[in-house]
């Protein structure tokens, strides 16, 4: 199997540790949906994997949206009359509402108050707020600090640019030996937040790096782009290629203690859904499957009815369902290397199965073909010879062009890896063919 080596927990843990180190390097960077933060992030990722960069000018029409102006920030603070910084962007980049317009004014507390955001229920956490599509500015702070601010006057500075520029995304493309594509999308637009965002970036980079050293059948594309406007822009620029997309996943939030959570595609029974559910149900880690809803991350765009792609989402805790979500408490201490390793193993198996899965047709379907004559009986080792022979018989029995390998694995309750091994042996012996390249892309093909 393509990434079968990640089945070994010590190998997965080593890669998870490297991913954690990458997250540590990326954590301080102030990212947004546009701007240098994304570029610097991609620079760092590029030390691991080759990236094709795209820079799309502000104002470019993208379906019902347009690429916004580029936001870059140098400094921001609220200071008292002695110049003492009471809220300081340089201490934590969450202190500024992301995409704030520039400000330089002296204000009273009452004037400043409508621009302050804090969490009374978590007085020591800084909230994460954005104002991408509404011209506004603001500061986020610990509720405890807000209560101690005093009446002012305050010097209020946001030294930022919001001006015509570009939207940036990067892709690592691992070419396949056959037709068809698959992709992994992760958002790269969050500033200093660890589980929501950086786990997705680091896990995608780690998987891409492993895949670059191997030869997949499908062409795999790992896309690192901003949330919503990034996936919309990518879709707009790749519309002609979408017919060859077999499978896709949006990933993120992969390092917390929540159970692995697969969110189905809008259609709910695509090949991605069947494979992800098979992997989660046959694994040992706590896992759950949830249905599609038009809320969440970039799956909303990929699964919109005009595209309707076979794209699901893998997270641990979903967005908005853990208390630290979108606050300064979503920091590196929330991310556990063991949980990252488990997420990596799960994704590696999903990717391997997506890549190996295929429809099969029995070329000798009238009665059972004689396996002994072809050296297939008691000759090749599976887990045990007996189990391998069962896998051969199950594969032949359901190789009717309507079942793919994952369907046969589910039906037989044998591991996909064993069914894949049996199918390969039968193909080699001339008893099985794989027509899936033709059928998979038809609108109503069994793989959909
Ligand atoms: Zn988020």
Describe this structure in words.
The chain is α/β, with parallel strands linked by helices and 448 residues long. It has three domains: 255 residues, Aminopeptidase, CATH 3.40.630; 89 residues, 3-Layer(bba) Sandwich (Glucose Oxidase, domain 1), CATH 3.50.30; 86 residues, Orthogonal Bundle (Arc Repressor Mutant, subunit A), CATH 1.10.10. The protein is 31% helix and 22% strand. The protein contains 13 helices and 19 strands. An eight-stranded mixed beta sheet has the order 1-10-12-11-13-16-14-15, sandwiched between helices. It has a four-stranded antiparallel beta sheet with strand order 5-4-9-6. The longest helix is centred in the last third of the chain and has 20 residues. The chain is elongated. The protein starts with 8 loop residues before the first helix and ends in a 9-residue tail after the last helix. The C terminus is likely disordered.
Concise synopsis of the structure shown:
The protein has helices at 9-26, 36-45, 109-112, 143-147, 194-212, 229-237, 271-282, 299-302, 337-356, 385-398, 405-412, 416-428, 436-439; strands spanning 52-57, 61-62, 65-66, 70-79, 85-88, 103-107, 116-117, 139-140, 154-163, 166-174, 181-187, 219-225, 245-251, 260-263, 287-290, 311-315, 359-362, 400-404, 432-433. It is an alpha/beta fold. Zinc ion is lined by residues 190, 196, 319, 326.
């Amino acid at each position: 199997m393509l990434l079968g080596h990640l089945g070994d927990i010590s190998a997965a843990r080593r890669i998870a540790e490297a991913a954690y180190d990458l997250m540590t390097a990326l954590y301080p960077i102030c990212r947004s949906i546009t701007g240098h933060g994304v570029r610097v992030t991609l620079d760092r990722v590029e030390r691991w994997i080759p990236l094709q960069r795209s820079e799309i000018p502000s104002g470019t029409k993208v379906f019902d949206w347009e690429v916004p102006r580029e936001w870059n920030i140098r400094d921001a603070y609220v200071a008292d009359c002695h110049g003492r910084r009471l809220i300081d962007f340089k201490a934590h980049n969450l202190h500024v509402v992301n995409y704030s317009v520039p400000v330089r004014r002296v204000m009273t507390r009452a004037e400043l108050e409508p621009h302050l955001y804090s969490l009374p229920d978590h007085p020591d956490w800084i909230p994460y707020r954005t104002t991408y599509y509404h011209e506004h500015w603001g500061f986020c702070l610990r509720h405890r600090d807000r209560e101690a601010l005093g009446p002012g006057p305050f010097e209020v500075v946001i030294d930022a640019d919001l001006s015509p520029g570009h939207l940036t995304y990067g892709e690592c493309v691992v070419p396949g030996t056959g037709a068809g594509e698959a992709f992994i999308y992760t958002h790269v637009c969050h500033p200093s937040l660890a589980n929501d965002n950086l786990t997705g970036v680091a896990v995608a980079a780690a998987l891409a790096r492993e895949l670059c050293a191997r030869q997949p059948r499908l062409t795999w594309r790992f896309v690192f782009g901003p949330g919503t406007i990034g996936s919309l822009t990518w879709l707009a620029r790749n519309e002609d290629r979408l017919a060859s997309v077999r499978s896709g996943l949006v990933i993120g939030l992969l390092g917390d203690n929540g159970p692995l959570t697969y969110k189905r595609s809008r259609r709910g029974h695509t090949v991605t859904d069947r494979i992800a559910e098979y992997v989660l149900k046959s694994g040992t880690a706590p896992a759950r499957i949830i249905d599609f809803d038009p809320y969440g991350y970039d799956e909303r765009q990929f699964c919109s009815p005009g595209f309707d792609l076979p794209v699901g989402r893998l997270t641990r805790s979903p967005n908005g369902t853990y208390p630290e979500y979108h606050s300064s408490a979503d920091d590196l201490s929330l991310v556990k290397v063991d949980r990252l390793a488990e997420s990596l193993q799960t994704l590696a198996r999903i990717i391997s199965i997506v890549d190996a899965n295929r429809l099969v047709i029995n070329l000798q379907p009238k009665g059972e073909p004689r396996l002994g004559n072809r050296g297939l009986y008691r000759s090749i080792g599976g887990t045990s010879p007996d189990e391998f022979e069962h896998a051969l018989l199950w594969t032949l029995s359901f190789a009717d062009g309507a079942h793919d390998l994952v369907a046969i694995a589910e039906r037989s309750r044998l591991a996909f890896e064993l069914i894949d091994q049996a199918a390969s042996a039968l193909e080699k012996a001339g008893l099985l063919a794989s027509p899936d390249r033709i059928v998979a892309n038809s609108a109503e093909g069994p793989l959909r």
